[in-house]
Design brief:
Blueprint lengths: L1 H17 L6 H24 L1 H4 L5 H28 L3 H21 L13 H14 L1 H25 L10
Helix pairs in contact: 1-2, 1-5, 4-5, 6-7
């Protein structure tokens, strides 16, 4: 998590510097890819943290608090980012966002974790196979894992056609 927060902080700080003269689509595209990679490492690690932070009987309370904080930060952060981007400009919004990652990084460095529970681990091949079997045998996971790429592809097709000036047929997107 520390590495991910540091990477996100640096990516956004560099973006702030590169967008001082105004946003550039290439810079924003590279930022999105790099940020997405770092973010993809953060979320699973954050999800695995609660058992190492509190006793088992406090997990529900911690999960509730974490969900509240995530939702509140999204609810407050989006309008604040919009105000910063509309006022001082996108570079200021990126700089502020980078500062929030710096604060998060300091907080993470101050956290003291409980020892991890020992568990049996298998080979990478066995673990991947077990994960694929779980996805294949669970209807909701199967629908989500196969349906999500299909929805994304459909959404891209519709966005591309509307961006080109075409009007997709009703219900085709």
């Amino acid at each position: 998590m520390v590495t991910s927060d540091a990477a996100r902080m640096v990516v956004i700080a560099v973006t702030a510097v590169l967008t001082m003269g105004g946003p550039d689509i290439a810079v924003l595209a590279v930022t999105a890819v790099l940020f997405g990679i770092a973010d993809a490492m953060f979320m699973p690690a954050a999800g695995a943290m609660p058992p190492r932070l509190v006793e088992p009987d406090r997990l529900a309370a911690l999960n509730g608090m974490m969900t509240f904080v995530r939702r509140a930060s999204l609810m407050l952060g989006a309008p604040l980012g919009g105000l910063l981007a509309a006022g001082p400009g996108p570079a200021a919004a990126f700089a502020f966002n980078s500062a929030t990652f710096a604060v998060s990084l300091v907080c993470l460095l101050l956290v003291r974790l409980r020892p991890a529970a020992r568990r049996e681990t298998g080979t990478v091949r066995r673990n991947i196979g077990e994960g694929l079997r779980t996805v294949g045998s669970t209807p909701v996971l199967r629908w989500w894992s196969w349906g999500s790429p299909a929805r994304t592809t459909s959404g891209w097709r519709c966005w591309r056609s509307t961006a080109a000036g075409a009007r997709p047929a009703w219900g085709s997107c």
